[in-house]
Specification:
The protein is an all-alpha fold and about 120 residues long. It has helices at about 10, 15-75, 90-100, 105-115.
C-alpha cells in the first residue's frame, strides 16, 4: 500500500500560504500609507514659514491696495470716477514723474502731487 501525499488544498497549506500573502500585502499598504503621512507632515513643517509669509503678504497687498484706493477717493475725489476707476489725471501726474527719469524715493511722487495741486 502506497501512502498518498495530500495536495496543498487537502493539507490546508494553500490556505496558510494565501493568508500569509494577504497579510504581507496589507502590511506593505500600511507601511506605504505611514510613509506618506510622515512625508506629508515633514513637508508641511518644512514649508509652513513660506506659506505663512505668502498668505500674509497677499492679504497685506490687497489691504494696502484698498487703503490706497480709499485714501485717493478721500483726498482727490476728482481723480476717481463714480465707477471706482482712476481717471487720467492720476496717470498724467505719474507720467510726468517717469518722463523726468526721477530715481528718487517713493515719497517723491507724493511731494510732486502735493506741489502740483498747490498744497
Amino acid at each position: 500500500m502506497t501512502k498518498s501525499t495530500p495536495t496543498l488544498t487537502q493539507s490546508g497549506l494553500l490556505a496558510v500560504l494565501l493568508q500569509r500573502q494577504r497579510y504581507a500585502v496589507i502590511e506593505l499598504a500600511r507601511r506605504h500609507a505611514h510613509r506618506q503621512d510622515l512625508r506629508a507632515a515633514f513637508w508641511k513643517t518644512l514649508t509652513w514659514p513660506f506659506r505663512a509669509l505668502t498668505a500674509r503678504t497677499l492679504v497685506n497687498y490687497t489691504g494696502r491696495r484698498q487703503q490706497i484706493h480709499g485714501d485717493l477717493r478721500i483726498q482727490h475725489p476728482e481723480w476717481v470716477e463714480p465707477n471706482g476707476e482712476s481717471s487720467m489725471r492720476l496717470m498724467e501726474e505719474l507720467d510726468t514723474l517717469t518722463r523726468r527719469g526721477s530715481n528718487e524715493s517713493i515719497a517723491a511722487p507724493h511731494r510732486a502731487l502735493e506741489q502740483g495741486t498747490g498744497r
